[in-house]
Amino acid sequence: MKRSYVSELKKEQDVLLKGWVHEIRELAKLKFIILRDSSGIVQCIVKDNKNAKEIASELTLESVVEIQGKVKKANVKSEIARNDTEVEVSDIKIISKAEKLPIHVNEKTTTTDLSKRLDFRSLDLRKPKVNAIFKIQSALIEGMQNYLDKEGFVQVFTPCLMGVASESGSEVFEIKYFNKKAFLRQDPQLHRQLTILGGIEKLYDIGPSWRAEKSHTVKHLCEHRTCAVELAFIKDEKDVMKLEEETVVSAIKNVINKCKNELDFLGIKLKVPKTPFPELKFPEIYDILKEHGKDVYGEDLDTEAEKILWEYVKKKYNSDFYFFNGFPHKVKPFYVMEGDENPRWSKSVDLNFRGMEISSGGQREHRYKKIMKNLKERGISLKSVEWFIKFFKYGAPPHGGFALGIERLTQVLLGLQNIREAALFPRDTERVTP
Amino acid sequence: MKRSYVSELKKEQDVLLKGWVHEIRELAKLKFIILRDSSGIVQCIVKDNKNAKEIASELTLESVVEIQGKVKKANVKSEIARNDTEVEVSDIKIISKAEKLPIHVNEKTTTTDLSKRLDFRSLDLRKPKVNAIFKIQSALIEGMQNYLDKEGFVQVFTPCLMGVASESGSEVFEIKYFNKKAFLRQDPQLHRQLTILGGIEKLYDIGPSWRAEKSHTVKHLCEHRTCAVELAFIKDEKDVMKLEEETVVSAIKNVINKCKNELDFLGIKLKVPKTPFPELKFPEIYDILKEHGKDVYGEDLDTEAEKILWEYVKKKYNSDFYFFNGFPHKVKPFYVMEGDENPRWSKSVDLNFRGMEISSGGQREHRYKKIMKNLKERGISLKSVEWFIKFFKYGAPPHGGFALGIERLTQVLLGLQNIREAALFPRDTERVTP
Fold it and tell me: Which of residues 119-178 of B touch A (CB under 8 A)?
């Protein structure tokens, strides 16, 4: 007999179900087994089948079982099953019997401490609300890929291991690499640029990056994923912003189409965001901040500044997504291009969602002399970047791109308190297992 | 004026082209610039436009230029341009002038040593034949994803950093992780299983793995990518084999549809492989080997054995793809399930292509007691795997999967001599840059 999924049950159908025991209840002479599979939850009733009753009495929560039975109309539309069917059980088989659980899977409210939940992540992931997060994340990525594939972007894999620490050094994980040292990349940025210089004019790279930051916040992970996109022969950073808008819109559309149940279940209403996203520009951003009592001309934005600007955007534009463009060139890395009109304001763009940065990008510096100038201004030794900058001597097109944080995007869209909720098995300063 | 790509030129059209100077020729009073962009190559002729002539005389190979002109019918169908158009130049602009090149991009034959080519990989990637490899690789992955997405597989990201060395220890890269040690995963295997135990019943994970193997061969990289798929509630390893066949077929179909030019250019004729792929089983495999003079009963297969078996398959089945099923349980890791009929032959399957292993997989052991037995037989300490095996106590469904090597698949399909040709910026024992 072919397996049926819980979400596909039709009345009067004979079915074979497979899944986990979500709940067990008894009422008079009836035994109720609430069965959960990856598609949903259904109530199964053991009436007077002696054999099934015996097996049911041995059942423990979260055991894996096979249940045969007939689909019936339920008297009450069960809140948990979210439909009006139930299954009258004719046979049960225990595939894998569960021991006493260290954490509850079937929680009405999430009372277990996050750290303990993560210690037992495979159990935690079974909670329908937790499971839903990763179906939505998958649909987000699929939506991005659909758009990028359609537009002719080549999916590439740039290396994770770097021979030289890419940025400040202090926040980089170091590896014993045979008799040398190597480092985990902080961003696929530099190799994306080298791939553009390799004549692949449109590309994207979905993969991990690492930050050895000691800060233990609700928005940082030591290992995270980005969808990183790069495009050659752009006119300016506006081309990158357009590309990013389209990528985000395609991601969200795909979630709305594919994950209706999951969104309902999480109580999230997603709307396709209107494009173009509002754009706030430096140095005007400093004026807005000053009007709100924060005078930080020339400095990078801190969390408080981000909050003020979100309040401003909310009132003025009614848009969750918005760009900051033109960050001070001096606070940005050497590969960022300075502005055309005023070199002080760079072509550096962040995408934000309700006060949270979810991506950064912009136009890169492709002119060898300007790169050298940027390095000098920042006191970066040529030796540490020679492996990278040498390629800019042999014909480099104008280019730019962005790296969208996948866990961050998932977190902000679903309103998750902690970014760890958006990573399957999160890594932070204290945690490298399970 | 909107940019045109070289592959889309229509006769008598006014165009703006952007790209790299692939070749410069002079003939009497004419100057020929062969322009290359990501879509192809076209010949541009500078006739008597004085300004353009002056700029053209300054041009160097691999400079980035913008060319305006009119598309004409070419007298001869150019071998290089692969079509019968050329462009009469009205204006040229040099965007980025190239210095003297350290390696040739426009090679008739690949004479440069691979190591030097990789030192200057961004130049090497510009060669149309090298560039084509990565467009094909991208289409392979897109084809896999199309199939897996359609079938409801959830795309997930399992962690790269492990708190405990996953396998033998000797071949694992070690990381300084704050005040602890961590390790780069050799395979996303274990976390794929933990995700299955987390109730995500169908999943795939495309991402990097690392092997600190000192062997310097043409088929090993220190960093490689797999498309790793896992499926719950399988009957046995046959379900995994079917899934793998469909994934590979979808990948190859997508390449045939999308990469006609690239395949032509590399001189590769791809056919959609017939399914089911032939299956050779242990212990019968040992009989075949013995008939061919190789008596290795009970041992793992070496390169010579793989060659003999490929000769056998070629004659008997006329199929490039074929499975080996039922490897000796004792040579396989602890998470592999032993056979039902004879526990000596495990449910462990390799997929091969013309004598080269491109994936391994099969059914995993989900029964806690059997996992404990496997660990004991292998002398593995409980402490090193407790973080993983503890989850099998709380309800584990039967499951299985495979991990397909993306660079390996690219290498064998395109007949590349060295797997480094199939990695954008390969990492091996000597190389971590560029």
Answer: 120-126, 131, 134-135, 137-138, 141-142, 145, 149, 154-164, 173-178
Contact check, Cβ <8 Å, B156/A134: yes
* A64/B395 touch (CB, cutoff 8 Å), yes or no: yes
Backbone angles phi and psi of B323, in degrees to 5: -100, 150
| Interhelix angle A128-150/A237-258, nearest 10 degrees | 130
Q: Cα(B407)–Cα(B136) distance, rounded to whole angstroms?
A: 11
Nearest to B3 by CA among B16, B20, B19, B21: B16
> Could you report the per-residue pLDDT of B287-318, keeping only the tens digit for each?
999 999 999 999 999 999 999 999 999 999 99
- Contact between B177 and B161 (Cβ < 8 Å): yes
Give the pTM: 0.97
Contacts of A315 (CB under 8 A, 6+ apart): none
CB atoms within 10 A of CB B23: 15
In chain A, residues with a C-beta closer than 8 Å to the C-beta of B173 are 175-177
Quote the pLDDT of residue A167.
59
The nearest alpha carbon in chain B to A36 belongs to B199
The predicted pLDDT at position B168 comes to 54
Q: What is the CA radius of gyration of chain A?
A: 26
Residue A215 touches chain B, beta carbons under 8 Å: no
Please, which pLDDT band fits residue A169 given cuts at 50, 70 and 90?
low
pLDDT at B112: 81
Residues 6+ apart with CB under 8 A from B115: none
Helices (H), A259-391: 260-266, 284-291, 303-317, 368-378, 382-389
- Select the residue of B122, B142, B198 nearest A194 (Cβ to Cβ): B122
The CA-atom distances, in angstroms, between A135 and each of A37, A44, A408, B87 are: 14, 25, 15, 50
Task: State how far the Cα of A341 lies from the Cα of A107, in Å rounded to an integer.
Answer: 58
Could you tell me if B187 lies within 8 Å of chain A, comparing CB atoms? Answer: no
Give me the pLDDT at residue B184, please.
Answer: 96
User: Scanning every residue of chain A, which has its alpha carbon at the shortest distance from the alpha carbon of B434?
Assistant: A387
Say what the ipTM of the complex is.
Answer: 0.97
pLDDT in tens, B233-287: 999 999 999 999 999 999 999 999 999 999 999 999 999 999 999 999 999 999 9
Please list the alpha-helical segments (H only) found in B62-188: 114-119, 121-124, 128-150
d(CA B252, CA B257): 9
What is the pLDDT at residue A166? Answer: 63
Sign, CA dihedral A6-A9-A12-A17, equals negative
**Taking all residues of chain A, what is their mean pLDDT, rounded to a whole number?**
95
Helix (H) or strand (E) holding A228: strand A223-232
User: Among partner residues A194, A223, A393, which is closest to B99 by beta-carbon distance?
Assistant: A393
Minimal C-alpha gap between B48 and chain A (Å): 26
Put simply, the chain B residues between 88 and 107 with a CB less than 8 A from any chain A CB are 95-99, 101-102
Cβ atoms of B86 and B44 within 8 Å: the answer is yes
What are the phi and psi torsion angles at A251 (to 5°)?
-60, -50
How far is Cα A137 from Cα A255, in angstroms, rounded to an integer?
A: 8
| Whole-number Å distance between alpha carbons of A325 and A89 | 61
Which residue matches tokens 């072919």?
A: A2
A133 pLDDT band, cuts 50/70/90, is very high
pLDDT for B39 equals 94
- The backbone torsions φ and ψ at residue B6, rounded to the nearest 5 degrees and listed phi first, read -55, -35
CA distance B227 to B223: 14
- In degrees to the nearest 10, what's the CA dihedral of B386, B391, B397, B402? -50
* Strand-strand pairing, B14-27 and A40-46: unpaired
Whole-angstrom Cα distance, residue B123 to residue B7?
Answer: 21
Structure tokens at B319: 């199929």
Q: Which of A9-13, A14-18, A28-32, A92-96 has the lowest mean pLDDT?
A: A28-32
